[in-house]
Amino acid sequence: MFRRKSRPGIRAKGTTWRAMAGLANVALLAVALTVLALGCNGKPEERRFRVAVDILPYADLVSQVAGELAEVEVLVPPGSSPHTYELTPRQRAFLEEADLVVANGLGLEPWLEELLKKGTRGRVLLVGEKVPAEMLIGVEGHAHAGEEASQVVDPHVWLDPQLMALLAEEVAGAMAELEPSRAEEFRRNARAFREKIEQLDEEIRKELEDITRRDFVAYHSAWAYFARRYGLVQVGVVEERPGEEPGARELARLAEEMRRTGTTVIFTEPQLNPQAAKVLAREVGSQVKVVELDPLGREDDPERSDYLSLMRYNLQRMVGALGGK
Known about the structure:
This protein is an alpha/beta fold. Helix content is about 40%, strand content about 10%. Strand 7 (about 265-270), helix 9 (about 275-285) and strand 8 form a beta-alpha-beta unit.
């Protein structure tokens, strides 16, 4: 901090060397403050918005739309299930201070939805609830106490690439509310991401053209949207209710259904214990394959670190399991 001294005897005309040094220091400070206020490219540094997301696919979606303007925190880490996860204190603090929260909703993460009901500082975007109602898949017989079965929907909408493309527009709109001056840029980025998803969609259709089987059993109902989009058949699920392992009677019923339909593929997930699926496979017969798919991805694995890579990773494992080339 600089203080200006007023001493008698300093002439109005001319400047002493000490006064000149003081002025020089002030000028240097002004330059330094200007440099700090500017980025390396000479432009003012833009504020980065703190965005909390529930799962990795939506973190990639936000990054694709917002670019470096978003500091993204993924709440559910690799290997954990969004159905049953519990936040750490640090994550809870980030969530409470986030400018934007992007989560799936539709009952995917009931613990998070309960927290969000209490209110947050920033805007909340439940992207799954932006999917038109006629595009949602109902889950019969899975209602909790006091609910009607018709109220329960399958929340795994991001595993249908076409629905994920729709959600890009929703994220662009949410970011535009935070930074209106960049609204067109966000919309342009969303369109670019949608084009990439359209290419992915064509690739998936082509890869699935020649598979010899189209039916499978999922560990839990993660792949129903994908199956509907690409003409596959989900015969049943091992774990009907998240976090509740099936009993012997349920496994026996599913084994009988697999024998009746000739289904020979069970898809498991790294977030869930596959033991029940292995028991089911042994019950049905040695011809049954147990193949792991990943609906969420991992940041530390290049094959699954972003949405497009993740979907291609799962596609290749599906094709191998269902008798494709």
